[in-house]
Amino acid sequence: MNMMEMVERLFEQYGYLVLLIGLPLDFIALPIPPGNSTLTFTGYLSYKGILDVIPAFFMALVGSIGGVTFTYCIGYKLGAPLLERYGRWLFLKPSSMEKVRHYYKKNGNKLLLISFFIPGIRQFIGYFIGIIRLPLRTVVIYAYTGTCLWVITFFAIGYLFGDQWNHIFDLVEKYIKIILIGSGCVLSGYLIMKWLRRCK
């Protein structure tokens, strides 16, 4: 059974509950069902009239924001104390966390707006912003906005493109990977150049 068949069966059995339960699981790093596919398929089912558009979109938004909030709370309550107590075994000193917080303050909030589009990052971003003790107000402004953009984008692919959603979805996933690889290469080059300058 492929991923989409699994998502389809889940919708047949549980309906809107897939969005309220399944999407938070994606943020907890248990992407069953996978978030991008689930949102796009939700949009498609809304296009077909199987799901009502407004409740489906609302449930998707609530499930996603709930997932971000839950992982943020775990990171905030448990992550920082665990790192302070056991971080030395992972070579993570309190001073290292301060550096991370310092670097985050420069561009981190803006990156939150796009981080939810990146598989692998989305599943851990909530824990991370909790561990560095990002203020709740900032989480609401940037993390929730990024979550909304993610939900709107993939829901719209399924709803607007209808029967062609699968093809468009594959293209979007493909270009996201290309952009990520390109960005990774640019960042690696920048870090290498910075390291070489320090060596000189």
Question: Could you please describe the fold and organization of this structure?
Answer:
The chain is mostly helical and about 200 residues long. The chain has helices at about 5-15, 15-25, 35-50, 55-85, 95-115, 120-130, 135-160, 165-200. It is globular and about 60 Å long.
- Count helical runs: 8
Helicity level: over 70%
SSE string, helices as H and strands as E: HHHHHHHH
Total strands: the figure is 0
Oligomer: single chain
Write a short abstract of this structure.
The chain contains eight helices and no strands.
Quick tags:
200 residues, mainly alpha, 8 helices, 82% helix, globular
Task: Give the topology.
Elements: H1 3-14, H2 17-27, H3 35-48, H4 53-86, H5 94-115, H6 122-131, H7 136-161, H8 165-199
Helix pairs in contact: 2-4, 3-4, 3-7, 4-6, 4-7, 5-7, 7-8
